[in-house]
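Methods, example record. To illustrate the input and output format used throughout this study, we show the complete record for ABC transporter ATP-binding protein. The sequence lines were provided to the predictor; the line carrying structure tokens was produced by it.
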Amino acid sequence: MSTLDLIDVTKTYSIVTAIEPLSLKIGDGELVCLLGPSGSGKSTLLRIIGGFETPTAGKVLIDGVDVAFDPPEKRPTAMVFQSHALWQHMSVFENIAFGLKLRGFSKADIRRKVEAGLSLVGLQDYANRRPSQLSGGQRQRVAIARCVVLEPKILLMDEPFASLDQHLRDRLREEVRQIQKTLGITTVFVTHGQDEALSVADRIVVMSMGRIEQVGTPGEIYATPATPFVAGFIGDMNMVPVTVSNGFVDIGGISLPAPLPEGPATLAVRPEDIVLGKADTAAAANIIRIVNYGSFIKVTASLNGLQWKVQAPKTASIAEGATLSLSVVRYQIFRDDRVVFRSDDA
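The corresponding predicted structure is encoded as:
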């Protein structure tokens, strides 16, 4: 049973607040992604968990024990860095064995654990190679094996695939997910890539400006963003300033129910929640750009001066310059930095 509880953790540098007071519970065997743009505080928070940064205040509880002010080597954690951080003069075997030697394991135990680690990451035949003889993906597998052989209670990963190409990144994150599930190890994974977070996480913690914006499953974060920041950061979203009047918002011929007090607000619509059809309504949009992604078509449509991103089926017959109707089938409305209406809830 390995749980992680952050209680009122904060971090300041002189007059700059990097992490506002936040609390977060991570369950046994859970893979949680800290997701946010550069400067959001996600890597700082991960380094606080790992002991590479000291919090200004707050508690870091691992299985109920506060380790907030313990150095990294005294914590039951292990971190996989973006840079691999491998010893270039050592073989793959020696790199993986290094931490085990420091902890005083016998030669027999070290060999057994290293061989098991190599097997776990699919590098059984690479034990005698140097890091310089490996590909980027193989080096990252060695870094992962070096951590898991230590049998940490909490595995920390700081953008481990950021330096790899897209194809390799996709493959490795699936492998890491499988390894994590096989071992049942509690994992905290930092990334700024929303696709990465959506594809591997049990839960996502969206961060901005040193605070948590929302915590939820990938499906919850995508379908029901709690703030305008989350709505705009996760996936494509049409964010349109509107005015609520007489229980409706009107956007260039599109009138949508909005049972709210009158005043300004922000309408949020996913591209896949817009339908294009024959131009037989007031909401006639001009198709100004089409990009074919193979599995779907991304369309940019202009309606009364506003541009809309629309996701259409790959079988749709749409041409640039055409005029088509634009209708919204699902939407959300934000006001005062929070969601105040979802059409699905009406």
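Annotations derived from this record:
The mean pLDDT is 90.
Residues 166-183 form the longest helix (18 residues).
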